[in-house]
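Two proteins follow. First one:
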Amino acid sequence: MKQLENQIAVVTGAGRGIGRAIALKLAVHGADIVAVDLKTEFVQETVEEARKLGRKAWAAAANVSEAASVEASVEQILKEAGRVDILVNNAGITKDGLVMRMSEADWDAVLDINLKGTFLFTKALSRTLLKQKSGRIVNIASVIGLIGNAGQCNYAASKAGVIGLTKSCAKEFASRGITVNAIAPGFIQTAMTDKLSQEQKDAIIRQIPLASLGQAEDVAEAVLFFASPAAHYVTGQVLAVDGGMVM
């Protein structure tokens, strides 16, 4: 029997990159998948791949920064899937810029998606998880939330907030058997890093003891651990998947 058999996992931002890798990793290990993104067409490939793996899979649309949208999405998810056992809050954006030039709109957009979105999805599913007296929540933070980064004050603040939210929720939900943990990826090879010049990539790699960018699969493996029975006694933790960059 696969370790996530008969469990249902909701993954936000599951249309590409890290989110898609997480959804498919959980599917490989037996979970049925609800792939969430701003529009259902963004996650159709993820859903189709999960079904090819023999899993049930649903596409769900939600603007994670808007409470009404999240609540409607969760209502539909529970109607179609019946229950939720695992929530992975992965949806996130960047809008980089120096503080002195950053617009209020760019600040708000990043905080709304990255931090408020994590809060809203956690809140919307909390009643179900608490009633079940079981569940796993995994939040995707970032090493930037641990160490900061010039030109990313909005992103750093949002991810530091996700870490604080994770620890607080871990304390609130522990008595009902629900674990809440965070993963802080370092520089992961995605469409975003593919746009960097080789010179920029080389500068980043010089900061990483393992001397390479990470892969989306590396983050997905860490999510699998937190979602699996092996992590039943682990909560409120932040795992950096960063090649040793911030150790």
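Second one, unrelated to the first:
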Amino acid sequence: MKTIMTCLFAASIAVAGFMPSVRVDHENRSSHGCYHADITTAPTGTAVYVAIENDSFAGIVAVRSDIYFQKSTDAGRTWLSEDLLVKRGALFACYPDITTDRDGNIYLVYTERPSGSEGHFYCVRSTDGGSTWSAPVKIDDNAAGVKAGWARVAVDTAGHLFTAWNQPEGSYLRIFSSVSTDGGMN
């Protein structure tokens, strides 16, 4: 019996590892590139969600970037046939981060930089598996745009959203945080 268990354990290790790579985005225009992807899973089932920054290029300098969403319902083996637009950047919508809560809501935070370098951080929510998204809610409380960096999001078991981001204060980048107790709605 011990020999059979050892053989089964060795066989399971031999087949463990990453599966073959699968392309997630479906951006096929020659003047676009995808960057800054973030991934999360649904709390139940086999759904996998990816947030993507899609940049439009003219030469080397980006003209605009947008936030797109992709979904797999079979544990990452296949993906939607088209990327779903979440936010069209006024100039730059960038650096997405994505998470889910235990009720299956999807939360996506991103940086919006209308001036190219200064902006704010926003959160959107989907209650239908990423088919539609709420209006953006501003996370930071800066009156004017700042040289915005990356925002990250997490959710606890009570449904509170926690966000953290970096922004300049004086000559240094500092980390700021905010909490939403209403699921990112206000």
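SUMMARY FIELD: Residues 2-180 form a domain with the Neuraminidase fold (CATH 2.120.10.10). The longest helix spans residues 2-15.
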